[in-house]
Amino acid sequence: MKEIFGTGREPACDADKPSPLRRKLLAACAYLPTAPLLAMLGGCDGDATSPTGDASTFTPPVKAPENIIENPLDIGLPPFKTTDQIPTPKPDPQTTGSVEVTHVPDRPPAPSRPKKVGIYSLQYNSFTQKSTRREVPFETEGSATILIRGDKVATFEGIETYLKRALDNRFALLYRAMETAFAKHSPKEFDVSFFTAPEFYWNIPFGDFWTEAELRDSADIYLTTVTRNVQTLISKFPASKYGHIVLLPGTVAALKRTFDVLKPDGSSQIIYNASNHLVCTHNLPTDDKKYP
């Protein structure tokens, strides 16, 4: 009616433009979630209608990762990852050629009592393995963030978490293999049976170690976990039920930094001391006079 008859006061501002109060509220509340903000502003300037919003339009700033591993270790030793470029092996001059026989015994060794020996072997490709280190959300406790290529980064689980899961999986695989093999051919048919696993069976690929600290900490985790697992494993196969068993469950390769050497070009190179550990056990009685 006021518009038709031209009566009443002129509005303080254009109805199509936000009032000064509305502009101040918009500026102050720019980062509030959408729905509460629109509900707050719905009644300003006599506007009784309120637009609705279902989700916030505010995107929090992403915190830049700290301590990114830009130059991970490149060890180049087995076991390798399936994605590694495997180097061509070089022949060792100390293990090639012929060896001269300088001594022949006068008589053969005394014969021993023949024994029936059973040989069981787990066939497993431990030389080249698939990496199973899992990617996790950024800032996960114990995780490691690595620069993959360019400016792309990825965060992976801590080495301790990864190692323990991998070792437990190998323990379960070895246990199932022994159960399956003994069910098909009982070791009680032999005087003694040997069950073997391949070299590096307990190792994860060396390419999954990105820092020297991870490599250093792994040796204790390996030996402690493998020793415990093997002791548990042999206890599952008592001699009274399975006969005499000697368990040779593969090896654990470890590297320990010894010293750095200076190369002719002025750069340095890290020298690691390599060791290969075998945790051997058996279920033979230790007080049996027949086995001195």
Query: What's the total number of strands?
Result: 10
Contiguous low-pLDDT stretches (5 residues minimum) are 34-46
Helix content: 25-40%
Q: What proportion of the residues form beta strands (DSSP E)?
A: 15-25%
Radius of gyration over all CA atoms, rounded: 35 Å
Q: Could you say which overall geometry the principal axes of the C-alpha atoms support?
A: flat
Multimer state: single chain
Helix segment count? 6
Mean pLDDT: 77
Give the termini separation.
Answer: 118 Å
Side-by-side strand order of the widest sheet: 2-6-7-10
Order of helices and strands: HHHEEEEEHEHHEEEE
**Class derived from helix and strand content:** alpha/beta
Notable traits:
292 residues; 6 helices; 10 strands
Explain what this protein looks like in three dimensions.
- Helix content is 26%, strand content 19%.
- The protein has six helices and ten strands.
- The protein has a four-stranded mixed β-sheet, with helices on one face. Strands 1-3 form a two-stranded parallel ribbon. Strands 4-5 form a two-stranded antiparallel sheet.
- A hairpin with a 5-residue loop joins strand 8 and strand 9.
- It is flat, with a radius of gyration of 35 Å.
- The termini are far apart.
- About 4% of the residues have low confidence.
